[in-house]
Design a protein that fits this description.
The protein is α/β, with parallel strands linked by helices. The protein is about 40% helix and about 20% strand.
């Protein structure tokens, strides 16, 4: 099993990179664990206070559970991955069953920040993109998917996303084995990554 970490700022194109990797391999060969599924449950916090939660710092993630799940998959056992609602800022009762696969991708803005997770990765990638491009994508996504107004997104970007990016996400780039500039549009870098994954899998199969 290969564990691939894909990090990068909000709106950098991580999901696009992940989807292109998945499409490069036979169906069912790649499993994805999104960092967002492992946000700590906030159901004990009053609803009016949940909007103040900082989702862009490492303390928001339940890292021990993610590490436990990666170890379980590496042992050849399935996991029940949690689900999280951005609308209510709570963990949902439903889970998603994830079977062990040849390739497991851990994707999220902070996945290279946490050493316990980072140390389990065979390949570490950072998807890079200009700040203005990321902001445009975040506005489009949050207005459609999370019911926010453009001004709400801009205020959050200036107050939370940008400072957290500078404090945690950008510095984690130094841990990356591969930096993918221009986000999901960089077909050359994504091709190099998929070729490397394919070569590692073939080498493992022949040993």
């Amino acid at each position: 099993m290969l564990i691939i970490g894909i990090a990068g700022g909000t709106g950098s194109g991580k999901t696009t990179v992940v989807n292109k990797i998945i499409k490069s391999f036979p169906a069912g060969e790649v499993a994805v664990l999104p960092q967002d599924s492992y946000y700590k449950d906030s159901s004990h916090i009053p609803p009016q206070e949940r909007s103040k939660i900082n989702f862009d710092e490492p303390a928001a993630i339940e890292w021990p559970l993610l590490v436990e799940h990666l170890r379980t998959l590496r042992e050849g056992k399935a996991i029940e991955m949690p689900t999280y609602s951005y609308l209510t800022c709570t963990r949902q009762p439903e889970t998603v069953r994830v079977e062990p696969r040849d390739v497991v991708i851990v994707e999220g803005i902070l996945v290279l920040c946490e050493s316990s997770v980072r140390d389990m990765m065979d390949v570490k990638c950072f998807v890079d993109a200009d700040a203005d491009d990321r902001l445009i994508r975040v506005i489009a996504r949050d207005c459609i998917e999370r019911g926010r107004t453009p001004q709400m997104v801009i205020d959050r970007y200036e107050g939370v996303l940008k400072p957290m990016h500078c404090q945690y996400i950008e510095p984690s780039k130094r841990f990356a084995d591969l930096i993918i500039p221009q986000g999901g549009t960089n077909s050359v870098a994504i091709g190099l990554l998929t070729d490397y994954i394919d070569a590692r899998l073939k080498r493992a199969a022949n040993n």
